[in-house]
Design a protein that fits this description.
This protein has about 100 residues and is an all-alpha fold. The protein has helices at about 15-30, 45-50, 55-60, 80-90. Helix 3 crosses helix 4. The radius of gyration is 12 Å and the shape is globular.
Length: about 100
């Protein structure tokens, strides 16, 4: 079960840098380095505006069967996944 946003601690600064690199390199390889789309759909703030946070977390956690989107739960914990989703919802990459 995922923790509510208020109860979930953020990853430490080192882990945040590692996750930022993952967003750029791994997510960016399919979704575009500016998250504007590519093999995968756009992950811009505008593109995600109407998608519930919990749905995005589930997609990152479990992937999308029948697509190139893998589940990341084997490599990332709930805290990491929530942090990544929150970065996207806030607008990633930041100007």
């Amino acid at each position: 079960m995922l923790l509510s946003p208020g109860l979930q601690a953020e990853p430490d600064a080192l882990r945040q840098r590692q996750l930022d690199n993952l967003l750029l390199q791994d997510c960016g390889s399919c979704h575009g380095l500016r998250m504007t789309g590519g093999l995968g759909p756009a992950l811009t703030r505008q593109a995600l505006a109407d998608i519930p946070r919990d749905s995005l977390i589930a997609t990152v956690t479990h992937g999308r069967p029948g697509t190139a989107m893998p589940g990341w739960n084997a490599l990332l914990d709930e805290q990491d996944i929530a942090w990544l989703v929150d970065q996207l919802l806030q607008g990633y990459p930041r100007p």
